[in-house]
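Page 37, top half.
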Amino acid sequence: MEFSSPLQPAILIKRYKRFLADVRLPSGEITTLHCANTGAMTGCATPGDTIWYSTSSSATRKYPYSWELTQTADQHWIGINTLRANQLVEELLTLQGVPSLAQFTHWQREVAFGEEKSRIDFVLSNKEEQKYYLEVKSVTLLTHGKGYFPDTVTLRGQKHLRELMSIVKQGHRAGLFFAVLHTGIHQVSAAKHLDPVYAQLLHEAMTLGVEVFVYRAQISHQQLTLVDPIPFVE
């Protein structure tokens, strides 16, 4: 996925109120941009790091700049905008880049489902009208050389796992797709130390037959692309 308009660099001053961050532009001007990430963003928002932002042409937006990437002091690249994860997975599906899902050539996005009134990111279908339920998560937490999800307790994520297990019990296929948006991550595990309930539910889901996909992204200020699978380690 190429960014529709060139990203611009700035220096991060601080992130606050979850959705806002102050940055210093190359001109020296300080401005506020929007941060489309509700997570803890541990290691992704260190003051002094270089960030890259996109600019919206919408006249109604209060904050026209959107934080897209972080370039760390260690020269790792991190995708900050979690909305990109679904776009990247859809691009991969279009290219039939996940072999076990290549038969599913049609899909719907953001479909309401489940007893807990959730929304699934994708419901895939094939020519035999079989369905596959796919939930997407963005992974950016790097700790001691390993990637983890989630980066904080996620009640929403726990609910999604219960819903996926319910789908499998009904006889459908279901999967969880971890889009790794951090170039320093080469394997992913459940963050038992941060959300033990999520980790246990994920173990139960995998035992039941929920499939797990982990693909890492190639990241630069010009493009963002899921390139190849990496291991999930329990």
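Page 37, bottom half:
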Amino acid sequence: MAVAHARAYHQVADEPRVFCDPFAVRILGEPVLSEMEFDLGLDPDLVRERRLFIAARSRFADDTVAAAIARGIDQVVILGAGLDTTACRHVGAGVRFFEVDHPNTQTWKRRRLSEAGITVPASLAFVPIDFENLSLAAGLAGAGLDRSRGAVYIWLGVAVYLTRSSVDGTLRYIASHGKSELVFDYFYPVTSTPNDPTATQLQARANRVAAAGEPWISFFTADEIRDSLLSHSYAHVEDRSATELLMLYGVQTGNRARDSGPHLVYARTA
């Protein structure tokens, strides 16, 4: 809900608008201008930069999907989809979309879509996976993912909540697909840049999401992520800090350290 709120609020509050999503406000199902509880009392500039990063990572993922479709890729897998609307925005592209998430989350999303009057595209397959009982490989195979053909994997806002072994296992699985592309994000260690004025604010947000039952667990440096990807035979890796990603879309940020906070990665196996 917090990520969906950021995408929706971006549609009405930010200029320039980095990411356009006509479904973002509709699927939210609540007043868009209300403030999220996790943002209360935090530096407004930090909250805005976080919102812009969420918009920018969605824009980058969307651009990656569009470019892959133009090259003939016809499978897109969205891991930890939440209230993502990618499949709704690419209707008629001749592509199959696979949304992976917990069964309860997908039931909630289906209800949101119905209440918002948003039709579930025929090209979208929901892949409900409780990882205590079913593996990612088995779940996607059962949903009809063809691993003999290429695919784009979108994995946003998830890695920080997983153990390092789970992150590594997911990267290994995607690499084993063969001709695959991946867009995902991760967090630098909050304490790795002690001179960054946003470190205290980031820690405050981490404490709040932990109190809500979703603690940040895994942090990585750029070198660690690159080494992990290369060890799994990814052939190409691009890593951008939040500041660098926003600059890509013409958004200027403050004087925060470039390595701090979230990073966005694009990787491919061939």
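Margin note: DSSP finds ten helices and seven strands in the chain.
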